[in-house]
Amino acid sequence: MFFIVLLVVFILLVYWSLSSTDKVFEKADILNIDNIETFNFKSIDSVVISASTLYKANTVKTIMQGEQYRKAWETPIKVPVVFLDSLKGGMEVIKKGGGKQTHSLKLQCENGVKYTLRSINKDPKALIPDFARTLGLENIVVDGISAQHPYGAVLASEIAKSANILSTQPKIVFVPKQKVLKKYNKKFGNRLYLLEYETDSHKNWTDYSSVTEIVETDDLQKLKLKKENKVAIDKSALIRVRLFDFLIGDWDRHAKQYGWVIKKVENNYTAIPLAGDRDNAFFKTEGIIPSILANKHIVPELQSFEKEINFMPGLVYPFDRYFLLNTKESLFITEAKFLQNQITDSVLNNALKIWPKEITAIDGNEIIEKIKARRTNLVAYAKELKKVIDEKGVVTEALKGSEKLNLPENLLHCFECK
Hints:
CATH architecture of the largest domain: Orthogonal Bundle
Helix content: 25-40%
CATH topology of the largest domain: Phosphatidylinositol 3-kinase Catalytic Subunit, Chain A, Domain 5
CATH class of the largest domain: Mainly Alpha
Structural class: alpha+beta
């Protein structure tokens, strides 16, 4: 009887928590501008804007669905206003991007360098399962976005510089409605974005020399199929970036989250990993409902950014096994020690300057302390990563994004399989 009463109370609290809003998506909230549709944004160079007020919570919601990064989402910050026809010499829209929750546009400069506008506000409608709609549980998915830090990708990129880790170098911008957006003006205008380099480009925007192109993982596999033993990846760089993923608590690192910078020296090609889509850097789950969902027996990869990694097997993807199977443990240890030496306390504190001071005041200390704790244990994490990769063995299915490739058996299983 007691259990039944407890269950009823729990269900009532769940629905009470979820009833705080029926909205699924909203744009960023601009302060001190009454009518954004008629306002002349060319008269100003910046706006004061909060990423979203959708995640405000009362006491019940905070207990049931967690505090997470709600304050960062609703806190107003100063953001530069950009017009694409004058930005970086002028940009044009190539096409609309994909993504289940991020609205994005692919852009190109006159010099051929490609960029992406990725919405900071997420639209998770496509992620809501039918049963959740039927039961009125949509807000579990919608509110789950509050576990993502709206500006986490910017800080992650800044920290990565100290360890010579490639990133797409995201910048926070506000894009008003403008003619350059053409048919996308209504949906994409007057919104808050991350402007960043693309992970797929025929033009080299990195500091590396002898770069022929920047490709995604499926195109790297095609190059391997064509050039065979003349193509190799920089394993040290890949291990380094994967350990960095652990440092910043970015759990969502499948094959489509990486590009590859292709260097050609004589007739040999070396692929250097380029991390993209850092939406889940510093991902933090709190509250009863998120904690249940993030249990290692339910969604093992959905891990909160805490001082210690909870369950390494959940963070090891087929991507890791595909590229790093049978790699010497010494290489993992070397890269862990490199990160420990490069990402110092001073580096972390200086990196915080990339954030608006209002956001640093809210989340800066907590995030830095967690990185420091993980940094201390990084050699142990490196060994565990190696162990889990070897235990899980070869990949038996195509990597995410490569499902349509007709690969021979050896190249399906691993990058170096004969």
